[in-house]
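Homework help board

Subject: predicted structure for assignment chain

Our instructor gave us this sequence and asked us to write out the predicted structure in token form, then describe one feature. I got the tokens but I'm not sure how to describe them. Can anyone check?
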Amino acid sequence: MKKLLLSLSALVILGLPKLSAQIIPNLGFETWSTNVIAPSAMDPNTGNGSSGWWDFNLDNSALLGSSPITVFRGTTKPAPLAGSYYAQIVSDSMTPTTYAALAGYGFAYPQTNGLMLLAYINVNISMLTATIKTGIPCNNQLKSFAFNYQYLPNGTDTCSCTIGMYHFYPTLGKRVLIGGAVWKNNSKTTTWTPISMNINYDSTNVLPDTVLIVFSACTLYPGQSPKRHDTLDIDQGSVVLGINNVASEEAKVAVYPNPANSQVTLAVTNHVQASHIEVFDITGKIVGLYTMTNNKITINTTQYSTGLYLYKMYDNTGTQLNVGKFSVVK
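My token output:
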């Protein structure tokens, strides 16, 4: 447990992943996975060992103090919001056991919080260790970030979204904040409302290598008291791209048989290392999430309807490597 708690301190130290081209994943919050050490919780990402939207739901594990779950998969939303799910953040207090342990390693957030942020998490249960890095790779100078939200504070409180764009300077030996944006709201909002945040930079000549986005259902500001049970709903995120760097090498993929009947195989034919794929139907709904082994996956399509399907392939940092399609004919 001590090793795992020590690794969690990376959340506030801002340990960041290696740089590579990256589009922010799961902006529609349609992909969810069961938390590897807190199986009563779900997280809006592709699971342990991936980059994406993470939270403090792992603290619900008895190993980390049995704190309340704070991010949930919402299922009821009106048109024109697309898809089946959204992210619901509900602020709550960590148990004294969790908070005391994390505070001992420099934990910087209030004991009462409700957070969802871009990060990479990989928990080794057998060794009771974890690799946790805030932010995900991004070498595009993003122009703006938009999303839809609802907010129900428990009394008077403030929800927020903060964006940080970082660049690593070898001469300094660290990453430095080069751009960002902040949005705050303290009003009850009972209908889905669109927000767009323009991202400002110190210089147009410096490209980032990392983006960190943090949503909070309650205040994170000194001198203010965060409330329990504030609820912030988030859905339909999008980004406008700006100046970008050279993209990561694309995976070359063989798809066979195509069209498929009972199964289809996707195999990477160059040296790029792939981790997993998402499969979507023609409406954009995700119909499958698959882990690749040795750069190859065979998908059972017997439950797929006749039609066209889109796949997106990623490496183990969440970087998109390839987009393609295949057909199923029965």
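Reply (TA_rk): Your tokens look well-formed. For the description, you could write something like this. The first strand starts at residue 33 and ends at 34. That's the kind of observation they're looking for.
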